Amino acid sequence: MALATERGTGRRMSEWLRGSRDDVALAFGGDVVRYGELARSVDAAALPPGDGAIGCPAGTDPVVLITTVLAGLKRGRPVLVGAAQADRLASALPPGTELALLTSGSSDPTGAPRVVARTSTSWLASAEPLARLAALRAEDRIAVTGPLHVSMHLYAALHALWLGASVGDALADATAMHVTPTRLARLLEHRALPQKVIVAGAALSPSLRTAAAGRGIRLTEYYGAAELSFVLAGRGGGLAPFPGVEVELRPDAAGDELWARSPYLALGVIGGGMLRRDDDGFATVGDLAEPAEDGSFRVLGRGEAAITTAGATVLAEQLEARIVGLPGVVAAGVVGEPHELLGERIVAVVELADGVDLAGVVAAARAGLSPAELPRRWFVHAVPLTASGKVARGVLREALTAGTLDGSRT
């Protein structure tokens, strides 16, 4: 892939800014910033005094956030994305940290943050392989569909700038977008979408994949985590190791855990989290997977989200994908609640398309799901999401306990 260069000089502005001076780099909220303007803003950015870490809180204007991140990287100062105050966390960052991203687990009702520390190089290394897999080019207009303090969306924005493409929040004229499966399902209900879509953050149901293909959309799916970055990727359901990644399946109580070794791994995590490493350079966040005969892998979901019911183990993420595959279901969240006889019983919260009746969905579930997977309670309610677009199961558990869900059917 040819490098986009600054027009007239042939000089790259930076490792991340590779567009031509007069081309549009950013288009957020109606504001348009060209590459030359962005490069000047990065050089002139007024950062906090000193040489310590820089805080960049959630809710920061996207143009300001990107400018701050690039300015910090250029001046050799760690940037804590999602944090207002950097001083409190800076001393705990591993040596060599350039980017630190606050993230919260989908199972935590408090949204308690943890900090994933990484180098800029660990993201840059994956830029060319992703561009090749997703057929992204400098001519693309790339839309992000979530806040930039979330690692998935920040990476998407920086990747677009690395391409020399434009990136923004408008879908109307976009030629490509990054999205989670839940947001993709919601968007497919209401509007035309770009022809190139990169999907991550949760399992993609076969029905959603088919619906996107029916609209002529070229889907690129990948599995990763803020701690691991890219692990698996592919098109059509089967995911193979992302270029540069070695994978292993290792037995665990809930199934086979997926371990990865690559140049894309984070330096470490502050504040807990699921990241575990071994002495050979492999790491895992506890996600389970199974191999296919063609050598690809299917990610089943996080082992910590397993529901034990009547002696069977059901993975919440895998079941959510199957429920979203039922006719008329736009989004689904699944949790377990204590039950005297079953140990746990499965509770499903679903968003339905207009005119769809819950009774029909329940009937389809009884016909299509195994007895162990079949939810014993159903609610029609908006499915809460984390900032990254994943199902916020902790919030669902809280609402279930508080009795604030609607539309119960036992």
Distance N to C terminus? 56 Å
Spatial strand arrangement across the major sheet: 2-1-8-7-9-10-11-12-13
Q: Which stretches of 5+ consecutive residues score pLDDT under 50?
A: 1-13, 106-111
Assign an overall shape: globular
Number of E-state strands: 25
Helix percentage: 10-25%
Radius of gyration: 21 Å
Number of domains: 2
Query: CATH homologous superfamily name of the largest domain?
Result: ANL, N-terminal domain
Our estimate of the beta-strand percent is: 25-35%
For the largest beta-sheet, the strand count, sense and barrel status come to: 9 strands, mixed
Structure description:
By secondary structure, this protein is α/β, with parallel strands linked by helices. It is 24% helix and 30% strand. The strands form seven sheets. It has a nine-stranded mixed beta sheet, sandwiched between helices. A five-stranded mixed beta sheet has the order 3-4-5-6-16. Strands 23-24-25 form a three-stranded mixed beta sheet, sandwiched between helices. Strand 23 and strand 24 form a beta hairpin. Helix 1 crosses helix 2. The N terminus is likely disordered.
